[in-house]
Structure of RING-type E3 ubiquitin transferase:
Amino acid sequence: MDISLRIVIPSLLLFVLFIVDIEEGHNSCPELQCGNGPPIRFPFRLKDRQPDQHCGYPGFDLYCSHNNDTVLELPTSVKAFVKNIDYKSHIVIPTLLLFVLFIVDLGEGHNSCPELRCGDDGPPIRFPFRLRDRQPDQHCGNPGFDLYCSHNNDTVLKLPTSVKAFVKHIDYKSQLIIVTYPDNCFPWKTQGLHLSSLPFQFKNSLSDYALFSCTPDTEYPYQVHCLNSASTSVLAFPSDYDIDNLPILSCTKMYTVSSVPSDIWSSPSLELTWSGPKCGHCEGKGKICRFENNSTDLKTECFDPDKDKGILRGI
């Protein structure tokens, strides 16, 4: 084989592998290494290879030297080569003689629960919510408050009957979450949309509705426009609505939907609330909520993120 081909083909292979690795790790922040150095994962990040700041905790940036040493910058521009990271014991061992760094409590919910986002425009995600694909520690969120990022970086909440809703806003002080459905048509999934298995409730009052499929020339209130088609017009009547005047010959009852808010038929979004854990008072004080350390009964506490930052301390 021509010597130029022997050089080019491995180079192309490495290039392809590198591209694949980036695509797969964009949302998951994979474990990396500088050469044969220690594995690097959260709370650390390789700032030259992981531009997403959510891959690491503030102040825990490392980088690879031109010799593939793992470098940690210390105060007064001291550069230390990191030889070992004990994630379990929270200890970093650099090559400054007799100098060991102890990773002090990160402070945001059991050591590794920083505020995250799905993309730059997504709502901030913090306790009681957690991004389950990037925060495996279940103490980062309350049970039932798991979110995840879609391949398009939308923030996704799973509702009953496999409904995947996009989270557009989270008001932590009012304990309110605003969600939308793909194509802005929640009525597609209203059958069986009960929240009893989730820690959320509809904000607005609930009613039962009967849905009718009518001819397209039927002009009545309560039209569900996103369910209409060229051949049918769909109407949703409250269960206590007098339908005696409804032209039965041109309408056929489809099904009944129980316990949904009226705005589900006309609004592209839904407002959900949660009653517990009660963290709104923490947010009202400018603080953040988390589980108490060593709590076994899911008790929560308020803490000040500005006064409880993770640091590296020499011992």
